[in-house]
């Protein structure tokens, strides 16, 4: 369901009555970048949209997670799995499924496109509108009231504990996240998890990241990890390296630098540099039960924007198919 649904799910969480079941979703982007993206020796399971330049070396796009579980990439004659607003430089790799388009110059060598073509043309994405939507969403999520506890052990380990069957909201200082070698999220199976990272720059490096005592596993707990969102509102860099990380990343103001890591979720970032793997496990958030909640006018506006975005993307996909 990707970015459009990340916004829709959590904006609804902000103030509307609902059940605690997963929301319906639309398929959108596994990776969404608002400026430039660089990829080296990288496999991306789903579709990619980059507002400005994309520079790829040894990159596989729409790989379908290399045969593991998770969402399949867009398919069909009109499927568009790579959208680059400006220039595309791609040396070695494959667009495994669907087509690609770049708005500027294209320098493409040694790239297989077995399911379609890559060409120059108009890009069917309003990146400016998406960026505004993402920034507003991230800011709104960061302002939500924490209902879970964050415990930092003397040795630096972090335990996030929530009991809400709908949405568990945590706040973690960027300094604590950057220095830890272990983080465990404790929350009811099937519940939503929002982790607000507070600080201008942060890192998740060489750490064990667990959900109810287990790291991301394709076969046993992928569905629960798909309910996890890491929200980073800093304008600096979020460094992710040497880890297998479950959950989606929302960092519309900052740069995300992924090195030798496996990310199992969506990435929305201002800029992105990546190597390793980004697997197509779409964010699948939940709504909490809150019959007494009354939405603020701003929440109503943002929710309407989120709904409009989803409808627009559904229309675009309908035209493409």
Molecular structure report:
The chain has 321 residues and is an alpha/beta fold. The chain has one domain (2-320). 19% of the residues lie in helices and 40% in strands. The chain contains 5 helices and 21 strands. The strands form 2 sheets. The chain has a 17-stranded parallel sheet that branches. Strands 10-11-13-16 form a 4-stranded mixed sheet, with no helix packed on it. Helix 1 (2-13) runs parallel beside helix 2 and helix 1 (2-13) runs antiparallel to helix 5. The longest helix has 24 residues, at 297-320. It is globular and about 55 Å long. 49% of the residues are buried. Mean pLDDT is 82; it is low at 11-27 and 287-321.
- Major sheet: size, sense and barrel closure? 17 strands, parallel
Number of helices: 5
Would you identify the regions where 5 or more consecutive residues have pLDDT less than 50? 11-27, 287-321
The total number of structural domains is 1
What's the gyration radius in Å?
A: 18 Å
The first-to-last residue Cα distance is 17 Å
Instruction: Give the CA-based shape.
Output: globular
Helix and strand sequence = HEEEEEEEEEHEEEHEEEEHEEEEEH
């Amino acid at each position: 369901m990707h970015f459009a649904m990340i916004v829709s799910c959590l904006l609804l969480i902000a103030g509307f009555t609902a059940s605690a079941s997963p929301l319906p979703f639309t398929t959108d982007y596994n990776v969404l970048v608002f400026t430039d993206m660089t990829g080296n020796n990288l496999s991306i399971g789903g579709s990619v949209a980059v507002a400005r330049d994309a520079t790829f070396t040894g990159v596989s796009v729409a790989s379908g997670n290399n045969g593991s579980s998770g969402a399949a990439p867009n398919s069909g004659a009109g499927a568009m799995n790579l959208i680059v607003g400006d220039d595309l430089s791609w040396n070695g790799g494959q667009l495994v499924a669907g087509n690609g388009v770049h708005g500027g110059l294209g320098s493409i060598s040694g790239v297989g496109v077995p399911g379609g073509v890559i060409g120059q043309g108009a890009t069917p994405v309003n990146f400016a509108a998406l960026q505004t939507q993402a920034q507003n969403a991230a800011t709104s999520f960061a302002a939500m009231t924490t209902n879970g506890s964050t415990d930092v052990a003397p040795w630096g380990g972090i335990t996030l504990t929530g009991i809400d069957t709908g949405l568990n909201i945590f706040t973690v200082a960027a300094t604590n996240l950057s220095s830890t070698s272990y983080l465990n999220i404790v929350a009811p199976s099937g519940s939503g998890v929002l982790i607000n990272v507070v600080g201008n720059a942060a890192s998740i490096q060489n750490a064990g990241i667990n959900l109810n005592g287990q790291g991301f596993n394709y076969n046993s707990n992928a569905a629960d990890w798909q309910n996890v969102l890491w929200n980073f509102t800093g304008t600096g860099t979020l460094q992710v390296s040497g880890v297998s990380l479950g959950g989606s990343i929302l960092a519309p103001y900052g740069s995300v630098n992924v090195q030798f890591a496996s990310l199992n979720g969506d990435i929305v970032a201002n800029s992105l540099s990546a190597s390793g793997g980004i697997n197509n496990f779409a964010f699948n958030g939940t709504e909490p039960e809150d019959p007494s909640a009354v939405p603020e006018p701003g929440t109503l506006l943002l929710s309407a924007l989120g709904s409009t975005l989803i409808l627009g993307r559904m229309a675009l996909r309908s035209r493409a198919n």
